[in-house]
Amino acid sequence: MIALSHVTKAFGPKQVLTGVDLVVPKGQSMVVIGGSGTGKSVLLKCILGLVQPDQGLITLDGQDVRTAEREAFLARFGMLFQGGALFDSLRVWENVAFRLLRGPLKRPKAEARAIAVEKLRRVGLTPETADLFPAELSGGMQKRVGLARAIAAQPEIIFFDEPTTGLDPIMAGVINDLIREIVTEMGATAITITHDMSSVRAIADRVAMLHDGVIQWTGPVAEMDNAPDPYLQQFIHGRAEGPIAAIR
Ligand SMILES: Nc1ncnc2c1ncn2[C@@H]1O[C@H](COP(=O)(O)OP(=O)(O)OP(=O)(O)O)[C@@H](O)[C@H]1O
After folding, report:
1. Distance between CA atoms of residues 165 and 229, nearest Å
2. pTM of the model
3. Which residues form the ABC transporter domain (predicted)?
4. Which residues neighbour 102 within 8 Å (Cβ) at sequence distance 6 or greater?
């Protein structure tokens, strides 16, 4: 379980998080929605310890994340970054096996490659893809490679940062379905950041809306449509009119 309690973060005069309380139960898929610049990425970075909150407490399975040994802590996480973030100079399989070729999860090269090929298969890519370079792949294929990399080391927790950005609606649907299937079969805890409401409906067990530095609403995805919160309703229906200022 990941728990955030009264987490605040400012950059200079800019208050980004003003008191975030959020619980992500183990094995659940939480999707965080909210407008551009509301601090969704900052929230993920705080959990990972890449950004230090000014106040508040973040725990993973009851342990304050600040006291965890860094390498072992990060080894528990997988990440699918916005845009895939593949290394252009490495072959596809080396990208997928990146964390299996170095650091605390290092294993023999042949074994790392075999795992990479298996993970590529899991995301619908053939073994021939393994020896290509990222530039030789379409955007949708790159996203699949990023997903294979995120799951290669069997993480307990996976973060997906805008997993469908830049994809056509059909490929976005394929990636959403893959994420849902993989998270379920791995029993992983997942946090996804997205603006894409089709992702929310495909991926989420629970939804949290970040607005004005706090979690404005959180609940099961099944309750989202009927929740009375006007901020949430404006956001999920993409209305210009409502309590959230449309000019930013
Ligand atoms: N290292 C930093 N230094 C200064 N300001 C930062 C830093 N990181 C984030 N910010 C600011 O914090 C705010 C929130 O940024 P963040 O990237 O978390 O937004 P977001 O909700 O993920 O947005 P988007 O949906 O557009 O990706 C922004 O105003 C951003 O400029």
Report:
1. 26
2. 0.92
3. 2-237
4. none
